[in-house]
Amino acid sequence: xxxxxxxxxxxxxxxxxxxxxxxxxxxxxxxxxxxxxxxxxxxxxxxxxxxxxxxxxxxxxxxxxxxxxxxxxxxxxxxxxxxxxxxxxxxxxxxxxxxxxxxxxxxxxxxxxxxxxxxxxxxxxxxxxxxxxxxxxxxxxxxxxxxxxxxxxxxxxxxxxxxxxxxxxxxxxxxxxxxxxxxxxxxxxxxxxxxxxxxxxxxxxxxxxxxxxxxxxxxxxxxxxxxxxxxxxxxxxxxxxxxxxxxxxxxxxxxxxxxxxxxxxxxxxxxxxxxxxxxxxxxxxxxxxxxxxxxxxxxxxxxxxxxxxxxxxxxxxxxxxxxxxxxxxxxxxxxxxxxxxxxxxxxxxxxxxxxxxxxxxxxxxxxxxxxxxxxxxxxxxxxxx
Amino acid sequence: xxxxxxxxxxxxxxxxxxxxxxxxxxxxxxxxxxxxxxxxxxxxxxxxxxxxxxxxxxxxxxxxxxxxxxxxxxxxxxxxxxxxxxxxxxxxxxxxxxxxxxxxxxxxxxxxxxxxxxxxxxxxxxxxxxxxxxxxxxxxxxxxxxxxxxxxxxxxxxxxxxxxxxxxxxxxxxxxxxxxxxxxxxxxxxxxxxxxxxxxxxxxxxxxxxxxxxxxxxxxxxxxxxxxxxxxxxxxxxxxxxxxxxxxxxxxxxxxxxxxxxxxxxxxxxxxxxxxxxxxxxxxxxxxxxxxxxxxxxxxxxx
Lengths: 385, 303
Ligand SMILES: Nc1ncnc2c1ncn2[C@@H]1O[C@H](COP(=O)(O)OP(=O)(O)OP(=O)(O)O)[C@@H](O)[C@H]1O
Ligand SMILES: [Mg+2]
Hints:
The complex is a heterodimer.
Chain A: H1 2-16, H2 19-34, H3 39-46, E1 49-58, E2 61-71, E3 76-80, H4 87-95, E4 102-107, E5 110-111, E6 122-125, H5 137-147, H6 152-165, H7 181-193, E7 199-203, H8 211-228, E8 231-236, H9 239-245, E9 248-253, E10 256-261, H10 263-268, H11 273-278, E11 283-290, E12 293-296, E13 299-302, E14 311-316, E15 322-324, E16 332-342, E17 346-351, E18 355-360, E19 370-374, E20 381-382
Chain B: H1 2-5, E1 6-9, E2 12-15, H2 16-49, E3 52-53, E4 59-60, H3 66-71, E5 74-75, E6 78-79, H4 82-113, H5 117-128, H6 135-145, H7 151-158, H8 172-196, H9 200-208, H10 213-242, H11 245-251, H12 258-266, H13 272-299
Antiparallel strand pairs in B: 1-2, 3-4, 5-6
The complex binds adenosine-5'-triphosphate and magnesium ion (MG).
Adenosine-5'-triphosphate binds next to strand 2 and helix 4 of chain A.
């Protein structure tokens, strides 16, 4: 499953990124698993983080099943998935707070699977922040540096820098409980970042913030990442957050990585039903293969991609359905509007047969009206399941 | 004007005056209780400590500071260090007892916390079962354990640190053993309740931030267990300073503590004024010790 996903993910990336870069990552993600050991593989695994076939069970619960991942240095990588799918578990295995049952974690080419947490150059921003309540903001941020016996002057300088970076100058002498949730979150962030870790892990750092602050922090985080160029791994179950901040996203469910790729890839080209539905809204159409097209309740639909099944599902995003005044040439469907939902910049039309269409507000739609739709073949995604 | 007198008390809008009246009403049973059972006897003790012993052991109401002079060693035969030695020994014994109890309590508490919830109750019960019997009986129980034919004494003989065919008591070792066993649960129980409620994510955060084992303990565990530890220290150190049963039975006449000295004055010597003066000294010393603990435990905190 995982290897499958990597392959599809990479074949699409081919188009958007320079071929050198893509070749390197293909080598790491596929050939490192098959044991091929050429120069490219070593080059690529030397930097960045690789997780190889990691499994973890808690009694009966399988929290992670044979998970493999390659994260490039400097990448903003997001683990996205519903509650209980194993995101935190994977994070804790990387940080060294949990021991994997099987599999290895490589950081810059070195096996760190058996290293204790305090020996790994990885830092975590905890979901609950876990700030030391008896230490001031300054001492909280200085904690990692003091553990590593960094010289006093350097500590002063780096902590002050780290606090400036997250806009907390002047709060250095406060105690954590004298700060708001958003401020505490920034203390936690700078406490981790001040150590300049090879990988920064962020476990749902925004979950305690309100919606407005959250978008603001997302943008700040993205900007910070661009400035520092460090590897960030973010855990979230908020798909909008994942799409906004990430270079790449891995979608998880039931302890497995279902698909990974750039936000665009996973959004536009979901490989399965779960990903299609988890990342935003999707219209699902089931059908039977008929030659190069699919026979569905809307008639024969043309698709661009190859169809791997006899009986299966197609998906299309609501905003990818086009609306016509007259019958379109390909994949045209007539539908009745059941409801019109005004969304400000868009309108969403609820159509019969459970279909949703999103369009801009240039035309007035009325309830009960019949309209022509078309599903552009290049927008129809063939799901694998 | 009105704003000044109105206040919000947990969501209720009340006058400050009302609140004060209510507060004193809630406090009064406690204050009365303290007054009747602690302050009054205490005051009596203070007064008595300045009086003199009569020829037949009665209290003569002649006020002087002679008892306190005697306490610090100025007797009829000139100055002697005996009393001060006893006081110093008491402080030392209480300190060592508390320290050993703390050192034992951490591993015990962590052990119990790491048991499944059902078993924890069982282990806690094991810890307090000895307290279902009387203190004197428990002290006598040590006689049996420390007898010459028991393994402990045999081991000591084997190691060459103890003569054969004599019990391990009376000795300072026996006193410490008795004291620690007497006070261990008073440290372990409050410490356990602190550790049970501990936020382990702080421990993980410290680990994540490269802390060594010592640093993890000092910065992530110790500050969280301090409330329980403080309760344990007070519950142990204060009574340990005044303990007389254990040193009396297991320490013999050469290992006297302040508790024994006081007991002697109120008992066989029938010198109540002097006994009262020693008690006052004990109270003052205990308070000083706890102040030192407070200061020290605060000092430990930063880094
Ligand atoms: N210490 C543990 N003991 C037992 N089961 C655990 C433990 N930690 C996690 N699990 C189980 O493992 C699975 C994955 O948990 P995990 O915390 O990784 O989920 P998650 O993806 O982070 O979810 P959320 O978004 O709710 O934080 C869950 O079914 C959870 O119940
Ligand atoms: Mg989680």
